[in-house]
Design goal:
heterodimer, A: 253 residues, globular, B: alpha/beta, four-stranded antiparallel beta sheet, elongated, nucleotide-binding (chain B), transport (chain B), P-loop_NTPase (chain B), ATP-binding (chain B), ABC_transporter-like_CS (chain B)
């Protein structure tokens, strides 16, 4: 294992994060605070408790997931797309590194950044609502697993993308709608029965449900299915990445 | 000298069916400078990309320092540094960070002192904390060289190091290459500037349409293929060649005669020519000879390859 290479990639990516601190960290915190003001305070004050939890607190796990999913995906996709775009990918391809090391470096950095932002949002949320986390270890496990698996997805998108437009396409057209419709701001039991069934095909529902369970002990679907969903998703991403690197798809001509 | 790189039967066919390399065999000795000369699209960059691991070969084998380039890819790539043709750099990074990244990628522990030595060798040291986007084109090329050298490779590939570089920077680059050679690095460079190959290389390989036409010692190549020109200045200018000389390899240039001959031929025909000139009533004032440049040799070769 070329540990120095993993370290080099990880450091390089993290230094970009710290160089663009305002854009990387401040903006997600700001937009989340706006959600709290609008949904938590303004609208939330007119909504009763949801399953025994105040609405302001109820949306916290969903909001964290919304940001973490988007950030993990876009960081990882940008991280590997940018070298392709400016041509520095030649270095990765000509260095004595295996694909495993490349993935650990890029995905690790993207997931770290997403995790940092998730925790910052959690801390920010404390200023707006009272939060008691029922299962902190589970909460962290879900958060870390989500960061990792969506960073893997982002990595795949970054390798697939041939332009900046395509890079934005999946987060914008797939991930954001799935998160919004995945119960970030509501419990799926609030939906009409037919939509409840449709929603069960949305993988993000399982993530948010599990994550919310870790906070409040209430869930839309059982914990088993939440854990199974995230492990299944991560496995699918790992298999896809394994295939990409075996074939050199979109990387080696 | 020991062989450090061996390429055997290398072919590359792109998906569209274009055959970029048609069975290339090259053997490189440690410490030499080989210039690969060829027109655009000859396969120079493809060859380098495959050896460096950026592209995959369709068939053929490569060994670097005795290591198989596929099976022992880590050991093989460890010995190679690549300076690409395009200026591919992270614009927002500092020079130091960018070079540190490269060193790390090649599995070497962080060693800023070594990096600073390399930056000094390339006269880049005072720019080490500058962001890459603030550097001039010539400086950016040096950063690429620093990145390629920072893991102390034994073979350095320079893909068109002076493409699009002005004359002064080109001379600079030649000097850098000479300095690198002194450090014992084997250098393989591609170029389509003949004078560059002439100025830097120990051996010259000519590649055209995916095939190596020849690889030879530079001096031997010039000598072997060298044609010489004899310029004959006449006491009185003439407008056309006398009929008696029409069958000679003679042409009229600005009023004086130019005779082309092959230095390798059994007879150059000069003695006969001089006699014929006198017979035609032409008087000479001066004679001079000129060795044909690599450029002319190269054009001849590529034409032959096409024929």
């Amino acid at each position: 294992m070329n540990w120095n290479a993993i370290k080099a990639i990880y450091r390089f990516e993290m230094s970009r994060t710290f160089r663009t601190l305002a854009q990387s960290v401040v903006s997600p915190v700001l937009s989340t605070s706006l959600y709290f003001v609008v949904f938590g305070a303004a609208i939330g004050s007119r909504i009763d408790q949801v399953e025994g939890v105040s609405y302001g607190a109820f949306i916290v796990p969903g909001l964290i997931m919304l940001t973490v999913l988007t950030q993990a995906t876009s960081n990882a996709s940008f991280g590997i797309y940018f070298p392709k775009f400016i041509g520095t990918v030649y270095e990765l391809l000509s260095a004595p590194v295996s694909f495993v090391e490349i993935v650990i470096g890029y995905v690790g950095a993207a997931a770290t950044k997403a995790l940092m932002i998730g925790l910052i949002i959690l801390a920010t949320a404390h200023f707006f609502v009272d939060l008691n986390i029922a299962h902190p270890i589970w909460m962290l496990t879900f958060l870390v697993m989500t960061c990792l698996s969506f960073a893997l997805l982002g990595f795949i998108i970054g390798i697939w993308a041939g332009s900046f437009e395509q890079l934005q396409l999946v987060p914008l057209l797939v991930i954001t709608p799935l998160v919004f419709l995945g119960g970030s701001f509501y419990s799926i039991s609030m939906l009409p029965p037919i939509w409840q069934t449709v929603t069960l095909f949305n993988p993000v529902v399982y993530l948010i449900s599990g994550f919310r369970w870790a906070f409040f002990d209430v869930a839309d679907v059982s914990l088993f299915w939440s854990v199974a969903a995230i492990i299944g998703f991560m496995t699918a991403c790992l298999l896809a990445i394994g295939w990409i690197f075996r074939t050199g798809w979109r990387l080696r001509s | 000298m020991a062989e450090i790189l061996k390429v055997s039967g290398l072919t590359k066919t792109y998906e569209g069916g274009h055959q970029a390399l048609k069975g290339v065999d090259v053997s490189i000795e440690e410490g030499e400078i080989l210039a690969l000369l060829g027109p655009n699209g000859a396969g120079k960059t493809t060859l380098i990309s495959i050896v460096c691991g950026i592209s995959t070969a369709t068939s053929g084998t490569i060994t670097v320092g005795g290591y198989d380039h596929d099976r022992d890819f880590r050991a093989a790539r460890d010995l190679i540094g690549l300076v690409p043709q395009e200026i591919n750099l992270e614009p927002f990074e500092t020079v130091m960070n960018s070079v540190r990244f490269s060193r790390g990628l090649f599995g070497k522990p962080r060693d800023d002192q070594r990096i600073e030595e390399i930056l000094k060798l390339l006269s880049l040291h005072d720019k080490k904390d500058n962001r890459i986007m603030t550097l001039s084109g010539g400086m950016k090329r040096r950063v690429l060289i620093a990145k390629a050298l920072c893991h102390d490779p034994r073979i350095l590939f320079l893909d068109e190091p002076t493409a699009g570089v002005d004359v002064e920077l080109r001379k600079d680059m030649w000097e850098i290459v000479a300095r690198l050679k002194e450090t014992g690095v084997t250098i393989i460079l591609t170029t389509h500037y003949i004078e560059e190959a002439e100025a830097m290389a120990d051996r010259i390989g000519v590649i055209s349409k995916g095939e190596i036409l020849l690889i030879e010692e530079k001096d031997a190549l010039i000598k072997r293929l060298g044609r010489k020109e004899l310029q004959i200045e006449l006491s009185a200018q003439i407008d056309e060649l006398p009929k008696s000389l029409a069958d000679k390899d003679l042409r009229l240039e600005n009023g004086h005669l130019v005779y082309t001959y092959d230095t390798q031929a059994n007879s150059t025909g000069i003695t006969g020519l001089l006699a014929d000139l006198r017979a035609a009533g032409l008087h000479m004032v001066d004679l001079s000879t000129k060795q044909s440049s690599l450029e002319e040799i190269f054009v001849d070769l590529v034409k032959e390859g096409a024929a």
